[in-house]
UniProtKB/TrEMBL annotation:
CDD domains, A to Z: ALP (cd16012)
Keyword set, alphabetical order: Signal
Coiled-coil residues: none
Protein known as: Alkaline phosphatase
The keyword Cell membrane is annotated on this UniProt entry: no
Pfam families: Alk_phosphatase
Domain of life, per lineage: Bacteria
Length: 584
């Protein structure tokens, strides 16, 4: 009898014939893209090899692309020396809602994608939309802000954040086209275009093009509003205005670091209000502090286009609200954390001592934009929640969250007299941050780890707000929140707030690896924490956790359950009834 173990060997000797398969092509917009009727986009097909243009067939619901778009196309025989061809048709749209199937072929190169094109309601619900972005805003940031700002007694909060009472809530997925993880560029871009994108990309699909400015564009909400309505557009951020979140309102680039080019995109579209940091990219290279590589002076160009320029809090207060178009530049880079600027008053703000608060910028933006009887879209970003969370500086992040909440309160006050205003509050992505209890300096000994209270030993922190400004009077109280991050480089955990400047957890060694910053080593009770992320990373990274969005006002009922981040774009355009052509 033949041994059974010989049977597999017999079959293994039989040759296996694998049928030939067609080479794939890449199509942009991608499969399952959802698009607004009349919304502009670039169509691109990337073949895996060089093909004959006469062989190329592109059919959209059975019709050739020439029939669908009576527009010039560009065939690239050898794109960027990659020995592969591409077909590009720029600035097209689809006017009729419905499901679309796109079939592409060229010889044995084949591909297909499906799109859904939707129409907004004809009746406009909202006159104004205010979108607040807490960059990196996570549940723990909100909890810490509530505890520190309002207090908590016998398990119940002593007060509520302005965000807490927004009527509708949902979870938002934040992943990008190329990764489960995300950054502020592709996440905010999804809000502003309704299309997915890749990490570091703004308003484009990430294609194989080598030029960062030559990827397939997706029309942004700011562009759409300016092209099809008489509404005003405002952008407010305490980061550089060229940073990912504010830039996403109007910009198109594969590389979010194209900050000089982003300024030129702002100028091309001309939002009515621009308030934030980042003057270094508006100023010509001959000006001290400039980061441009040319002599373009965008401060002068905006002024010549009718913008009132303000450069500090005093000028904003005196001249801002009276302007019809307003450009406020308050720092060459990112503006400074509210904890340093308003409370610690340390050397951090020495270079720019009179920066406005996010609340002041929000109020001024509303004063200017509300002059337009056709309504407005305003994006307000509290960017420094993220900027402080990366280096594990949770106290600064929490103070910045309180500042965001106070800005939301201003918008809610505005909505009381303008009930046709939709207010949305969310973040672009989350951070791995949690509150586990308290740290009590009065516990005996020098081991700070043993001063961490958990469960019933945590009790309550002793923050106080005696002056009633909504912030704790001191950040360095004796019994404070114990907050930790779940991803981090090597660093020394001090269990204390950093009073001189933002925490710098890790620095590079001679090998280029990030190691714990020794300046914190001798702080009593400091503990070395060995990192759990790659050694080429100097700070904590974003988490993939769902984002929370809340909203109130006309159109807020569309926010519920679980949503992809691209769906927030549809909530906004539905409420404003965009996609019906030029209004007014």
């Amino acid at each position: 009898m033949k041994a059974s173990w010989l049977i597999p060997l017999t079959f293994a000797l039989v040759p296996v014939v694998i049928p030939a398969t067609a080479s794939a092509v890449t199509i942009y917009p991608i499969d399952r893209a959802t698009m607004l009727t009349g919304g502009k986009f670039d169509f691109k097909v990337e073949f895996d090899k060089q093909v004959d243009p006469d062989q190329v067939s592109v059919k959209i619901n059975g019709k050739s692309y020439q029939q669908v778009w009576n527009q010039k196309s560009e065939f690239i025989k050898d794109e960027d020396g990659l020995n592969a061809s591409s077909l590009v048709i720029k600035n097209v749209d689809i006017a009729t809602p419905g499901d679309y199937n796109v079939e592409v072929s060229a010889g044995d190169e084949k591909g297909t994608v499906s799109w859904n094109v939707y129409q907004t309601p004809e009746k406009r619900q909202a006159k104004n939309v205010i979108l607040f972005i807490g960059d990196g805003l996570s549940v723990a940031h909100r909890t810490a802000a509530r505890v520190m700002s309002k207090g908590i007694t016998e398990g119940k909060a002593n007060g509520r954040l302005a965000i807490d009472d927004l009527t509708n809530m949902a979870f938002i997925g934040t992943s990008s086209t190329d990764s489960i993880a995300a950054d502020s560029a592709n996440t905010m871009s999804a809000y502003m275009t309704g299309h997915k994108s890749g990490v570091n990309a703004l308003g484009v699909y990430v294609s194989r093009a080598k030029d960062s400015l030559n990827h397939p564009k997706q029309e942004t909400l700011g562009e759409l509003i300016k092209r099809t309505t008489n509404m005003s557009v405002g952008i407010v951020s305490d980061a550089e205005l060229e940073d990912a979140t504010p830039a996403a309102v109007l910009s198109h680039t594969r590389r979010r670091a194209d900050k000089a080019e982003i300024v030129s995109m702002f100028y091309d579209v001309k939002p009515d209000v621009l308030l934030g940091g980042g003057s270094a990219y508006f100023l010509p290279e001959t000006t001290p502090g400039s980061k441009r590589k040319d002599n373009q002076n965008y401060v002068e160009r905006f002024q010549q286009a009718g913008y009132q320029l303000v450069t500090n809090a005093a000028e904003l207060k005196k001249q801002g609200s009276g302007a019809d178009k307003l450009l406020g530049l308050f720092h060459t880079g990112n503006m400074d954390d509210v904890l340093d600027r308003r409370f610690l008053k340390n050397d951090v703000t020495k270079k720019f001592p009179d920066q406005p608060d996010l609340t002041e910028m929000t109020q001024t933006a509303l004063d200017v934009l509300s002059k337009n009887q056709d309504g407005f879209f305003l994006m307000v970003e509290s960017a420094l929640i993220d900027k402080a969370s990366h280096p594990l500086d949770w106290e600064r992040a929490a103070y910045n969250t309180i500042m965001l909440d106070q800005s939301v309160a201003i918008a809610k006050k505005f909505a009381e007299t303008h009930p046709d205003t939709l207010i949305i509050v969310t973040g672009d992505h989350t951070h791995g941050i949690s509150i586990v209890g308290t740290v009590d300096d009065d516990k005996p000994g020098n081991d700070m780890r043993e001063k961490v209270g958990v469960y019933e030993t945590a009790g309550y922190p002793n923050y106080a707000d005696k002056d009633g400004d909504g912030y704790p009077d001191r950040v360095d109280v004796s019994k404070r929140l114990a907050v930790f991050f779940n991803n981090f480089p090597d660093h020394y955990e001090t269990f204390r707030p950093k009073l001189d400047a933002r925490f710098v957890p890790a620095i590079q060694n001679e090998k280029g690896e990030y190691i714990a910053n020794a300046i914190y080593k001798d702080i009593p009770g400091a503990v070395l924490r060995t990192g759990n992320i790659p050694r080429n990373t100097d700070t904590g990274v974003h988490s993939v956790d769902d984002m929370i969005v809340q909203a109130s006002g006309p159109g807020a009922e569309r926010i519920h359950g679980y949503m992809d981040n691209t769906e927030l774009f549809r909530v906004i355009v539905d409420s404003l009834s965009l996609g019906h052509g030029k209004q007014g």
